Amino acid sequence: MNYIQKLVLVGNGMAGIRTLEHLLKIAPGTYEITVFGAEPHPNYNRIMLSSVLAGGAGLQDIIINDWSWYEENNIRLYTDDPVTAIDTENRQVTSRSGVCVSYDLLLLATGSKAFILPLPGADKDGVIGFRDIRDCETMIETAKTHKKAAVIGGGLLGLEAARGLLNLGMDVTVIHLNGYIMDRQLDEAASLMLRRELEEQGMTFLVNKRTAAITGRRRVEGLKFADGSELEADLIVMAVGIKPDIELAVSAGIPVNRGIIVNDNMETDIPGIYAVGECAEHRGITYGLVAPLYEQGGILAQRLAGMETPGYSGSVTSTRLKVSGVDVFSAGNYKDEPETRSLRYQDDIGGVYKKIVIKEEKLLGAVLFGDTSDGAMLFSLIKSGDSVVGREKELLLGFNPGQPEGSGTMMLEQMPEDEIVCGCNGVSKGDIGEAVAAGCRSLGEIKACTKASASCGGCKPVVEGLLQLYAGAETGEPIKEGICGCTTLDREAIIDGIRGMGLKSVKEVMNVLGWNEPEGCTKCRPALNYYLGMLWPLDYEDEKESRFTNERYHANIQKDGTYSVVPRIYGGVTSPADLKKIAAVAEKYNVPLVKFTGGQRLDLLGVKKEDLPGIWSELDMPSGYAYGKTLRTVKTCVGNTFCRFGTQDAMGMGIRLEKAFERLNAPSKVKLAVSGCPRNCAEATIKDLGVVAIDGGWGIYIGGNGGIKVRAAELLCTVKTEDEVMEWTGAYLQYYREQANWNERTAHWVERVGVDSIKQVLANAEMRQQLVSRIEETLSTTTDPWHEIIHNEELRKNFVQLPELKAVME
Fold this sequence. Notes:
Blueprint: E1 5-10, H1 14-26, E2 31-36, E3 43-44, H2 49-54, H3 59-62, E4 63-65, H4 67-72, E5 75-78, E6 83-87, E7 92-95, E8 100-102, E9 105-108, E10 112-114, E11 127-128, H5 133-143, E12 148-152, H6 156-167, E13 171-176, H7 188-201, E14 204-207, E15 211-216, E16 220-225, E17 230-232, E18 235-238, E19 242-244, H8 247-251, E20 260-262, E21 273-275, E22 280-282, H9 290-304, E23 318-323, E24 326-332, E25 341-347, E26 352-359, E27 362-369, H10 375-384, H11 392-397, H12 407-414, E28 420-422, E29 427-428, H13 429-437, H14 443-450, H15 460-475, H16 491-501, H17 506-512, H18 524-535, H19 549-553, E30 556-557, E31 563-565, H20 576-588, E32 593-596, E33 602-607, H21 612-619, E34 631-636, H22 650-661, E35 670-675, E36 689-694, E37 697-702, E38 714-719, H23 722-739, H24 746-753, H25 755-762, H26 765-779, H27 785-790, H28 793-796, H29 805-809
Parallel strand pairs: 1-2, 1-9, 2-5, 9-21, 11-18, 12-13, 12-18, 13-14, 20-22, 34-35, 35-36
Antiparallel strand pairs: 3-4, 6-7, 7-8, 10-19, 15-16, 16-17, 23-24, 24-27, 25-26, 26-27, 28-29, 30-31, 31-33, 32-33, 36-37, 37-38
Helix pairs in contact: 1-9, 12-15, 13-15, 16-18, 22-23, 23-26
C-alpha cells in the first residue's frame, strides 16, 4: 500500500489514540502511522485505574485497543520506548532504545505527570503518585507488608486511591488542604454528604491540613503538618493534581507555557507538529478531563484528513464520576455568587442532593449527588444558554413519578446531537443515533460499536434512554442485552438453544445461534465453553483455547511473567512430610517467595513457566486450583479437635467438603469455610458457602463475599449431620452452576435471585437429590490437570518458555 505521508504519534494514551481512531475512520490509508508509548502496554483506559487498584478489574479489562488493533490498522507500535529527542529540522524522532523514525507530521500526546509536592522527604521510599498501572502495582504490593496509608489530596484521584487502599486492607487517612473534599467538583453540602458516606466505608479525613514534611529515614514513616501535629504512615500517595508533560517539547524548542501552546487547529508554532490532550495548552487553558481531549482529537483528525473544520474553540466541562460507589455530577459554575439564584433539593435519608444555579434566565451550573440521571440534560442547557424561565423546579426535580409519562423521552429528544453522553469515551447523542441506524439494537451492541457506557457505566441510563428513543418503536419490544457484543442473546436464550438443539461445541453454538462475530470474543468464548461443559458433562470436551491464560497453564500468572503454584492442602491441614516436599521443591527451583495465603494454603511465587511441570511432579500433590473458576479452598478452624470452644469437627468437615468438590468448574471462583463454633474463626459467614457448627448440628450460609464489596452470607438452612451438610452443599453448588451467569460470583447471584427462591428449590427433597446426582455426574469426569500434564508429553510441550507480553494480556 502506498502512503502519502508519515505520521508519528508520541504517546500511546487515550487522547492521541482517539485522534487516530477518528482519522482511520474518515481517511483510512492516508498515513503511514508509527506510535511510541512510554508504558509496556497497549492503549488502556486511565479512568479505570481505580477499578484495577480496588481489584474489580485487571489490566486486560481496561484495554481500549489491544495488540491486534494496531496490526489490523497497519500501525507500527513501540511500547516501553518513549521518544527522547525531536529533530525539527530533519523531521525525525529518536526513542530511548535508539529507534529513529522520520515524519511528515508529528503529533505530541505526551499527557501529564502526577504532581509531587516539593516537601522535605518527598524522595523517600513509599512516596508515590497515582497516575498509571505501575502506581497501582506499587500500592498493591505495599499493602501486603504495610498497613498505614496516607493520601494527600481529597479530590477525585485521592478518594479513588483511598478506596482502593482500603479494599487492600490498609488503614487510610485522606489529608486535604481545604475545608471540604472534592471542592473543585462539589459544593459544600454535597461534599459533606460524600464525606459521611466514605467515613462509613472506613476512611478517615483530616481537612484544613497543610503537610510540612515527610518523616522517616530511607522509607517514609509519617507526615508532619504545619500546625505541629503528626500522622504515622508507611505509604504516602500524592494526589494533588497533574502537570503537563512538556519536557520533550522544551528540549526540541517547541513553545510552551504551562502546556505545549497550540492554536485552534491544535498546531504548535513549529510546522508539521501538533499537540492534543493533557499536554496541550489552548487559549491559556489545559484540560484534564477526557471529554475535551476527545473533542480536540476529533477536530484534529478532520484537519489531518483535509476536511474543513472551524477548529477547536475550547470546552465547557462537566464531571460525571462514581466515587467509591457513589454517583456525583457537576457542570459549569455551581458556586453561589452575586446576581445568581439557586435551587436545592436535599434528602439526607435517601442520599440525594441536587442544586442548580441560574443567572440572567440561563442555567449557569449544577451539582448532583446520588442521582445523576439528569446530568446530560442539564449540561446541554448550560452549554446552549437557552432560557429556563418557568422550568426551574422541573429541572431541579428531574424525572419524578409525578411528571407526565414520557417527559424523560421528551428531554432526550431535545438534547442536541453533538451533546456528549459518555464522557469517558467521548460519545455523543448523534454517535448513538448513527449506531442504531447502522443496526445496533441492544446496549451490548452500542457498547461494542461506540464504547458508550463501557467504562464507568455512569451514563448507562441515558444510553438506554437514547436506545429506546431511536430503536424502541422499530423493535416493538424491550431490547435485551446479550452476554457480549457478538450476540443479542442472553444467558437463558443461549442455554435453551444449546439444550434444545443439542449443540456440542463453541463453534456450533456460534454458527447455529447467529453470532455477529464468527470467532467470538474473550467474553463469550469462555462463557460458552463453561455452559457446554455444565450442560453436557459426559459428552463435551473442554476447549482449552477458550480459557484464560491462568486456566490454560494451570497456574496464576504474575506481573513479571512468572507463575505461582498452590498445591491442594485439604482444609488447610498439612503434614510434616508434605511441608518437607514443598520446602525441598522451593529450594531446588529457587522459588523467590513462599507465602501463606488468606485461605490457609502455601503459595510458591515467582516460578518460571518451564519449571511448572517439574515442580508439580516433585510435589506429587493435587492442583489447588488457585487460578481457576472453580473451588479454591475450604478454610477451617481447629474445631473441637483442640479448641475449648469448639462444638464440632471443623477440620474433618472441611477436608470432606474439599475432597468432594475440589475439581468442580463453576461460573466464577468459589470459596468455602467451616467454623467449629459460632465464634466463626474461619470467617465462614463471608464465604460463597460457609458452614458454622452449633450445638447438635450445622448452619449453612450462602452468598458471602469478603472482597471489594463485603457481603455477609445468609442462612440457607440448619442441619444435624455431616451427610446433610454434604447433600445441601452439593445441591446448592449445582443450582448455582446451572442458574448463574458466567463470571457471576455467588454473592451477586444470591442478591439477584433472592435467598428465599433458592431455599424454595433446595427445600424440595426430590429436586435436591436431582441436583446432587448431576453434580456427582460432573465430578466423575474430572481429572487433576497437573498429573495429566506430567504424564502427557504433548501437553508438556506448552511449557517451554516464558509467555510473551501479548499472551499475558489475553
